[in-house]
Amino acid sequence: MARSSSLLLNYNMVKKIFKRSRNNQGKKFWNSEYDSKKDENLGISTNPSGDLVKFLHWVDKQEGVFDLDQGSYVYDIGCGNGRNLIYLAKEFAMVGSGFDISQEAIESARGHSDGLDLTYSVHKMDGTIDLPDDSVDLVLDMMASHFLGADSRELLRSEIKRVLKPGGWLFYKTFLLDEDRNAKKLLREYPAREEGTYIHPKMGVEEHVSTMHEIKEEFGKYFTLHKILKSHNHIKNGRPNKRRSVSVYAQL
Hints:
Elements: H1 2-33, H2 50-61, E1 73-77, H3 83-92, E2 95-100, H4 103-111, E3 118-122, E4 136-142, H5 150-163, E5 164-175, H6 181-189, E6 197-199, E7 206-208, H7 212-220, E8 224-230, E9 235-236, E10 239-240, E11 245-251
Parallel strand pairs: 1-2, 1-4, 2-3, 4-5
Antiparallel strand pairs: 5-11, 6-7, 8-11, 9-10
């Protein structure tokens, strides 16, 4: 019995160390990508996401659905260099906050947010949101929560529901598995323990890729899904091209 307890303790210690190593590896990768002194990175832009701008234009046409007005609060999960928060603050006078695992990214965000009512913090994503109930008008989860495991993703969805005001919005963007040969190759060659998840060969962290069925099931129980847009540039001349993504316009 004592030996079994000892083995369990050792297993849990190894599991913790492995998880910490993965987190540090991801943090190191993103700090490197946002390093302003680097000549080569992922081509990180300071312009707002085109998919977010498209969402905002769509919302603007929906009379009485959502007013993007002065003082509306936006929360950005994995905000990177703050480009989307900064755009919302400048164009719509919105206020808000965001966080990212990368210190380099947050320093960049703060450096470009002078005079704007935006706050930033550096910490890892764990599925929790440190904000009061019914306090947020718009949540952005753009290529961020797919780094979480299944339980933490579910926790995050419930947390988003908790902090959104009645009628508030979630703009969600993630990788889509359907018809994406690149994603299927990653799942074959770098499988993780969770179904639909692989270990990113460059970052060394687990990354989940969703199906349309999964998105509808998991988000549909919390939100009204007004629009789901799938990218179509994943195949070019019959060959795999870019990774496929999906954008979801969801309302509480």
